[in-house]
Write a sequence for this structure.
């Protein structure tokens, strides 16, 4: 077996995001894909791998056809919000082994527009088949499962509502620096606490927004980097883990699967959490940010509340997190994991504009982590990326 090739992210892009009433999900896929390939500066004929999930009866076959691609390597892994970090891991392995040269990851959704137009409803359940049949009779909604986990953390470690609310406040402050963010007006802890209750303890601003939008990421083997118009961002290490689907099979509500995927990713990258300059974490709810910070090793278990309340997550903070505003304020069209990778790459390249993170030595960030979470903490994918 030959030497494994290094793998870089060479192109990233978003489609139009936020309120997009005049596009189909396929069109958003295509828009993001074209922009990512153009960002890389590579000819589309070099793309021989394709990964997509969430659209079409035969995903990713239908989307590849729509984009005019005929890939020889495909992935349709679907594990919720962590899908794209897991797919990036699979793509990086395939490229490193020589089974693909350039892999395009694409996602797009009109989740907001579909509800506004009455084409779908705001579903509260994933269904009642299989193991889920034993929970559905008790009324467990998706949001309620996250809320129960948050309550357990509050009970066990003394985490407060104010600390959870500060996650949303800091996400909004970061979004204020992002022209592409859907919501940019400042909010306060009191604004979060006084909002309408969705699932105790989560009020409305504890929960992610619903938007339209798409994203695309192009990965390529090291020999193509010299032909790209952008500086490479290298995939240094990845990890993935699945935990449970029924709440009764979750050993500890205060530990997410990122505790495993993160450990694997950092070990394989050969770096420590304290070396990371910027983190992009899945934040469908404020508690997700807090517990993922703990599980990735940025603070000890149970100390997440104290960690987040001191402004550390701000663009100018000790550990800038979700610098684009995250799913709480920027955009959240569904499985948002691909947006985490886009923002991590933009930060490492120095392309984040007013929200750009700088190291204390005045240099651009060198290390970033993107960690996606799927289901109700059912799965996790973590990717460590490095510049230069």
């Amino acid at each position: 077996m030959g030497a494994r090739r290094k793998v870089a992210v060479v192109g990233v892009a978003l489609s139009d995001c936020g309120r997009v009433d005049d596009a189909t999900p396929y069109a958003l896929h295509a828009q993001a894909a074209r922009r990512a390939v153009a960002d890389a500066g590579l000819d589309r004929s070099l793309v021989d791998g394709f990964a997509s999930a969430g659209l079409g009866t035969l995903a990713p076959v239908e989307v590849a056809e729509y984009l005019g691609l005929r890939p020889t390597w495909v992935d349709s892994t679907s594990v919720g919000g962590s899908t794209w970090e897991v797919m990036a891991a699979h793509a990086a392995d395939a490229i490193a082994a020589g089974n693909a040269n350039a892999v395009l990851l694409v996602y797009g959704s009109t989740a907001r527009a579909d509800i506004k137009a009455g084409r779908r409803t705001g579903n509260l359940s994933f269904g009642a088949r299989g193991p889920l049949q034993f929970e559905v009779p008790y009324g467990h909604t998706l949001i309620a499962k996250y809320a129960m986990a948050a309550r357990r953390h509050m009970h066990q470690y003394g985490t407060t509502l104010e600390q959870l609310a500060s996650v949303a406040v800091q996400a909004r402050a970061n979004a204020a620096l992002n022209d592409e963010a859907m919501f940019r007006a400042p909010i306060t802890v009191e604004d979060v606490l006084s909002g309408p209750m969705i699932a105790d303890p989560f009020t409305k601003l504890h929960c992610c927004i619903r938007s339209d939008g798409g994203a695309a990421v192009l990965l390529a083997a090291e020999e193509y980097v010299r032909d790209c118009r952008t500086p490479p961002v290298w995939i240094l290490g990845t990890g993935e883990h699945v935990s449970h689907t029924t709440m009764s099979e979750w050993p500890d509500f205060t530990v997410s699967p990122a505790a495993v995927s993160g450990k694997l990713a950092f070990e394989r990258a050969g770096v420590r959490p304290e070396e990371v300059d910027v983190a992009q974490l899945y934040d469908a709810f404020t508690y997700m940010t807090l517990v993922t910070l703990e599980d990735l090793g940025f603070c000890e278990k149970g100390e997440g509340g104290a960690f987040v309340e001191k402004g550390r997550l701000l663009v100018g903070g000790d550990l800038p997190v979700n610098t684009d505003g995250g799913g709480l304020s920027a955009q959240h069209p569904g499985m948002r994991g691909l947006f985490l990778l886009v923002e991590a790459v933009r930060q490492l390249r120095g392309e984040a504009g007013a929200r750009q993170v700088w190291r204390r030595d005045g240099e651009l960030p060198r290390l970033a982590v993107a960690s996606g979470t799927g289901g109700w903490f059912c799965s996790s994918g973590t990717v460590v990326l490095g510049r230069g």
Summary: The first strand starts at residue 7 and ends at 14.
